[in-house]
Amino acid sequence: MHIPDGIMSPEVLAVGWVVALAIIALAVLKVNKKTDDKTVPLMAVLAAGIFVAQMLNFPIFGGTTGHLVGAALAVVLVGPWAGVMIITIILIIQCFAFGDGGLTVLGLNLTNMAIIGPFVAWGTLKLFRGRMEKTGVLAAAWASVFIASFACALELAASYQISGGAYGIEAAISMPAMLGYHAVIGIGEAIITAAIYFYLLRVAPDIIKTRTPAKGEAS
Amino acid sequence: MIDRKYLKAIAGIFVLFAIGLVFFFIFSAPYGDGLEKTMKEAGIEEGEPVYQAPLNYGEDYVTALIAGIVGFGLTIGMGYGFFKLTRKKEEIKETK
């Protein structure tokens, strides 16, 4: 879902940068208040792990692939604001070191994957908190990809509309295609996220930030 | 000193993704992703990149593996540096 250069209108690019810079600046402040020396290595390893996981393009249907975004996984383990920063770091490295996603469009990629993804995941997890938490993780992972792809389709449609067709893709094509593919890609995201979540639930349950401790268990 | 629970989690994540990195190419498919497929269906192509990145993800198992290791290292370095730096600022504030 990394948008390349040259397909979005300047107006939509500008909105993406404004949103991304504002929210990420806020995330820096929020993370600054909560980060302690114990969590720093975990967050760094988690970021690097998600970077690697994003390299895996799993096949879906019709000669299409998807890859993990990792927003829900980050949120489950370190919360929404640190999740924003982790995905931001990954996207910056992908853009500047590997040319994955355009530089002019980095603001929109950050908005979709590093901001919308984590906060949709956080909101979904909140809905399931205290009951059906495992289902909540699956739902959060799926929703984070699906809603981020909806935002991307909306940006493509807005670019098309604003530029009179010079940029973007008309909504009649971008919406069904993006939502159709990402509804399935989201299932892959949910499976990978749940697999890692269940693994960590076994080896290090205390580390899972969104977990409600069992009765009698110290939180 | 890092808590035992954090050490276990870090080790768990590290092992999981290290194994994943080695095996990712077996499962990784060469087709375009959902956005690339949508662009193809709409008949639009990527514009010229305004910035030429120094690295790429490689085209065979060995180069992709090297790219993954380099990316893993870069991300750990940048992540650790960023979170450590923001933590240090907080400590400075507390000592004033």
Keywords:
heterodimer; A: Arp2/3 complex 21 kDa subunit ARPC3; 70% helix; globular; B: 96 residues; mainly alpha; 3 helices
* CATH architectural label of chain A: Orthogonal Bundle
Structural class of chain A, please? mainly alpha
| Number of helical regions of chain A | 7
Uncertain stretches of 5 or more adjacent residues of chain B: none
In terms of DSSP E residues, the strand content of chain B is under 5%
| Amino-to-carboxy terminus distance of chain A | 37 Å
Biggest chain-to-chain interface with counts = A-B, 78 and 63 residues
Helix and strand succession of chain B?
A: HHH
Q: Tell how many strands the DSSP assignment of chain B holds.
A: 0
In DSSP terms (H or I, runs of 4 or more residues), the helix count of chain B works out at 3
Distance between the termini of chain B: 24 Å
Strand content of chain A: under 5%
Main beta-sheet strand count, sense and barrel state of chain A: 2 strands, antiparallel
User: How many E strands of chain A?
Assistant: 2
Lateral strand order in the biggest sheet of chain A: 1-2
How would you describe this structure to a colleague?
The complex is a heterodimer of chains A (219) and B (96). Chain A is mostly helical. Chain A contains seven helices and two strands; from the N terminus they run ααββααααα. In chain A, strands 1-2 form a two-stranded antiparallel ribbon. The mean pLDDT of chain A is 91. Chain B is an all-alpha fold. Chain B contains three helices and no strands. Chain B has helices at 4-27, 34-42, 61-95. The longest helix of chain B is centred in the last third of the chain and has 35 residues, at 61-95. Chain B is extended, with a radius of gyration of 19 Å. Chain B starts with a helix and ends with a helix.
